[in-house]
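Problem: given the chain below (214 residues), write out its structure.
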Amino acid sequence: MTKPAIIQKTVTFVQDTLKNAEGGHDWWHIQRVWTNAKHIANTENCDLLTVELAALLHDIADSKFHNGDEEIGPATAGKFLHSINVDEDVVIHVQQIIRHMSFKASFDKTTFHSKELAIVQDADRLDAIGAIGIARAFTYGGFKDREIYNPEIKPNLTMSKEEYKNTKAPTINHFYEKLLLLKDKMNTETGKQMALQRHNFMETFLEQFYTEVQ
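Solution.
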């Protein structure tokens, strides 16, 4: 099967699988991450097929929608890629990227590195910040019935992985516990440049938010 055919089959699979997904983790999120990943990949020496497949499949079964199961995503991706006869080394690499790219994975000791992981991770983190990131944060907060803001609940900057996974804190806290930290966690030069403007936009939003609250 040609690479374009592999990508098209993967797109179709992801669109069908995520057709009823929560708004911050739906096909349009995947499409943005895919676009960001291809853009960053153009400036890096990497295997583009692995980058594209990992970007397309990174949220195919996100653990936070599957009772915290962190292996269901890699397993679902692997089963699909095997079904269309993708080379085994590519399948394993894509699974490793999915397994290690999330923010919560950073709480663990990192055991896997690759240029392709760095690219897809940057692409996903870009979609978590800026205007899109703000929209996604409040969409997910509403999905989880969280408060928008509660001045009596302060951000927890020393959370464990389990605390992060199970937090019920107001959405504004999420900016300090994750979103504002991502700029300094970008891997690639292109990712760092793209993140800066989005980071600044979030800071402007928060300034306006607190002005209106007060």
